[in-house]
Amino acid sequence: MTIKERQQRExxxxxNPWRPMDTAPRGSGLVCDLLFDDMVGQFGTEGLxxxxxxxxxxxxxxxxxxxxxxxxxxxxxxxxxxxxxRQSLVKKRDxxx
Length: 97
Prior knowledge:
The protein has two helices and seven strands. The chain is of the alpha+beta class. It has one domain. The chain is globular.
């Protein structure tokens, strides 16, 4: 990672701080980044986006799947919302995958 890339990442982290899991908005369709803990450190989810449904289940958008492979420890918003139709489509694709 170059100095410029590190500075950009630090600026992004300052503008979009990680938030506790209990503050995540359920069923709003807000697209989020998630931070996971793998007991050795945090593993990267660069380029992956998620949303929280009304039942409290996290879904990865692309490829569509329910997050059951690890427990997220923090989240931050991407300031984009998914329509209920798009959320339903991601859930259906996860069921048939």
